[in-house]
Amino acid sequence: MLEQTKDWDDDFYEKWKPIAMGFVNEAQKCLQCGKCTGQCPAAAVTPSYNPRKMIRDLVNGNIKRVLSSVELWQCFFCGGCYAACPMDINFQFFVFMLRLAAMNEGYGWEDVKQLEGYAEKDYLKNGVTVSDFERNPFVVDTRGDISKIREAAGLTSKRQVSDRAIAEINMLSDLTGMTSFMKKIGGVELLDCRTCTPEQEKKCKHKPMPSRVGKTKTHLRFYNYGEPGGKKHAEA
Amino acid sequence: MPRLDIVAQIPKPKQIFLFRSCVASNKYPGTEACGRETLQILGVEPVESDEQTCCGGFVTFANVAAPTASMPAVARNLSLAEEKGLDTCVLCNGCWTFLNEFGHFMNHNEEVKASVNMMMNMMGREYKGTSNVYHIAEMFYRLKDDIAKNVKRPLTGIKIATHYGCHYLAGGKYSAIDDAQMPSYLEELIELMGGTVVPYTANRECCGTGFTQIINGKDSSLEHTQLKLDSVKEADPDLLVVQCPYCHSQLDRVQQQLNYHNAGDYQTPVIHIAQLVGLALGVAVPKLAFAAHISGRERLEKVLDRVGR
Fold first, then answer.
1. Which residue of A has its CA nearest to B120?
2. How far is B102 from chain A (nearest CA, A)?
3. Global pTM?
4. Pairwise CA distance, residues A17 & B100, whole Å
5. Which residue of B has its CA nearest to A164?
6. For each successive 10 residues of chain A (236 residues), what is the average pLDDT?
7. Is A69 helix (H, G, I), strand (E, B) or coil?
8. ipTM computed for the complex
9. B243 CB-near residues (< 8 Å, 6+ apart)
């Protein structure tokens, strides 16, 4: 991405701190020691992902570089950076809030769109996010019938969540604005690998990006922190 | 070395609210059944409720909901335990971090707590913040004397490797019972039950699920899991013990996926710590629910033959 002077915002970090509800703080204490990057599982497979550089850019105000990067979306949320940090900077929450900020600027919607279905069709419908439906095509044949295994183990054949509980989380979702946010995201169909058609496979491999989400125009992301590396890119 | 001062603060209750986990219920039911059985054997009565939903962690970290949207859901789940006057015991690292972290956040921000309670009151509930959240592995470590007394099937000669999972130790840097870099309480539990601990290089590495990376960044997720599994294969344990159903699902299922791609022959059975303790305490074999496991089933059966069915 070509950088311009106006992309820099010296006050961004200070302005943003209060909006981020206490999840983002103490970044100014960063020593730039790089322990976070040294132990990072995402950096181990994609060398361009670098938490240290992202904290530096956030504090220095080069916010556009962080928000428009592909790297922002490669975090594993393992929290190892927080565990290793001598200054107790909780970087995984930074990523979490920075992703929301990036979505506001129109970046990363093709990723979030893939995930909306889990909230709408599993969490808000059944009260559990991971259902007994198997989405991994490689294990469908080997795995047993879960409801029978559950009965043999002395449990009910299906995990029970009462209707009242489901109604309550839906109500909370409406009250907190999660439902309207989800409507804005839109979401894509959750594909079943067992009944996959070539058309679906194409869709699955090339994630369709919405041109506009609400009033926000969406953009492509960039590798802003150098060569991505990793197996996939090494072969290409 | 476990932090004994934090361990000493864990009570030994008569009853505890057992928080069900999505993955443990729907992919590995043995974890849920064993959690219930083992707590009963150790003299703690588990109390469950159908009113309890998923913790909402996945939805939040997938950026489908802002943290403000998932905090009331956390408060609702914790208020169920508070109604009964009990502490909460979770089976999953994700549930532990999410309930603990957001519970802590609400307890220390009066304004947030007040606005959450405004929504809670609309449905006749109240969040007070009195229920402490404990991981089942913490409870086992607290009750290790009772475990030592009740061992029915000693794990003599079984080689066991451990995987702690990131969201317990790394996410809970100050609230977990052990050090984030060099933990040892699972090893202590295994030796207590007669097993042999096998060290391997990538012990502290992430399993590779990476919350949403399993859906959006499949390449990097698989690549990292393969790094981990290569190291496990080198040490060649009979069992790999995890304490998080999500790590369980990733490490177990990806082995099959890599075998399918001819990336190597991975056959290491993965089991949850609740199942391992259940195995040692003599829980009936169908309740261990090994039928739901994918990789290394033959080796798992051999382990069962060696410890006795």
1. A172
2. 11
3. 0.91
4. 23
5. B51
6. 78 80 82 92 89 91 89 90 91 88 87 84 88 80 85 91 93 89 75 71 69 80 79 64
7. strand
8. 0.89
9. B93, B135, B136, B137, B163, B164, B165, B168, B186, B272, B273
